[in-house]
Amino acid sequence: MLKKITNYFVIPFAICVILMTALFPKTTVDMTNFSTEGLELNYTVSEDIAMLSPAEGTHPTMTYDKYFPYLGKSYLGFKEALAFKESRGNYFTVNDFGYLGKYQFGAETLKLLGVYNPQFFLYTPELQEKAFLANSERNKWILRQDIARFVGKEIHGVTITESGILAAAHLAGPGSVKKFLRSFGGYNFSDAYGSSISHYMKRFSGYDTSFIKPNRKAKAIL
C-alpha cells in the first residue's frame, strides 16, 4: 500500500522537477563574452555613406545605376549596361523576333562573325561574349571615319561619343548609324520595341571603349 502511494506522488513530483529545470535554467549568458570593446575594427565604407538611406537619394559624391551593379565607365561597364538593356543579362533568352542571348544577336549577324549554329551559340556564354567583342570590333572598323568626324559634336541635343556610336550600331547596324550621323539625325531608326539610334547614343554615351580595336575581319572563335 505504501509503495503505491509513493508511486502516485514521487513520480509526478520528479516529472515536475525536470520540467522546472528545463524551463527555468539557472545558467545565464555572460554578454561580456560577445563585446567588441578593445577590438580594432576595419571599416571599408565611410560612415556617411553607410548610414545613407534610399529615401535620401544619391550621395553627392557618388553616382550609380539603380538597375544593375555599378561597374563604372569601363568596357566591362559598357557591355554589361548594353546587355541589361537587351536581355537583362540573360544568356539563354530568345525574344519574339528570334534574337538570341545576352546581347540579342540575329542569325545573319552571327554568320558575319563566323557563328553558324544558333542553338550552340545560345547555350555557350563564352561564345556570346566573344561575339559581342568581335561585333563591336567590326562595327568600329566600319564606322572609324564617322567616329573621327562626329565624336564631340551634338545632334538633336545628344553629344556624340564613341561608345554611343558603338551601342547604336549594335542596335541598328553600322549602316543605319552612318545614315543617322551623316543626316545629322534626320534618319533615326527605331527597332520593333521603339528603341531608337538617338536613344542608344544618349543612354550609352561616355563609356571607355578603347579596349575595342577596329578589326574588319573580327570573328567569334572559341
UniProtKB/TrEMBL annotation:
Keywords: Membrane, Transmembrane, Transmembrane helix. It comes from the Bacteria. This is Peptidoglycan-binding protein LysM. The chain crosses the membrane at residues 7-25. The lineage of its organism: Bacteria, Pseudomonadati, Bacteroidota, Flavobacteriia, Flavobacteriales.
